[in-house]
Amino acid sequence: MKVKRSERLIDITHYLIEHPHTLIPLTLFSKRYESAKSSISEDLTIVKETFAKRGIGFLETLPGAAGGVKYIPKMKAEDVELFIRDLCEELNYSKRLLPGGYVYLSDMLGDPKWLRGIGRVIASQYMDKDVDSVMTVATKGVPIAQSVAFYLNVPFVIVRRDSKVTEGSTVSINYVSGSSSDRVEKMELSRRSLDMGSKVLIVDDFLKGGGTVNGMISLIEEFNSEVVGATVIAENIFNGERSVKDYTSLIKVDKVNTQDRTIEVSPGNFSIE
Length: 273
Known about the structure:
With 273 residues, this protein is α/β, with parallel strands linked by helices. The protein has eight helices and ten strands.
């Protein structure tokens, strides 16, 4: 049974949003709604214009028999800046200050509203790059990586500091903690988690000395793979030289006063074109 255009538009929009970075042939929509491809093309034009106008993303059309339409959920630069300002405002409270100058983020990483936003913002920076996998370290980075991976439509892999029997054979490396130069730690990744020659995006919640991110970079090299980029939510104050320099951060901690328990955060170096 044919459906009305209004119903088609709603269903097409929902389907595209639920399948980002997925090439969808027009025949799928044509059969789904028992409508001609010309009608589906007109519907997609409406959706495309609305997405672009509202900053929802854009539709990429590929012509030909093997073509179709692909939803790219890239945010506008001004929307990213607004989100990061809101993030700074949410985190700029003394109650979030933890020992060591860290900022409490766990509640936000458990809130779907913030988690989806963070994932989409980070993914927007890498929409135009080839990414095969998103990598993070257990445990706080897992929800971030999962959200980013959804918007990029790629798998995410979890680096652990202790092996699990369910992981099978692993590759392990020793690395120097960035915040403590005299401490050597270990991280491991299952051999089945990452294909050789992959292009990997690193994400994490916090960066201080950069030891964890640098360790993941070394681990990626063990798989003969390439680091596409590294992005963290928060960049902490660090007196010294970080072990990693090529990274982006959504926010940075500018000032911490442990005596009166005040904290100041501001936008990091994150930006999209």
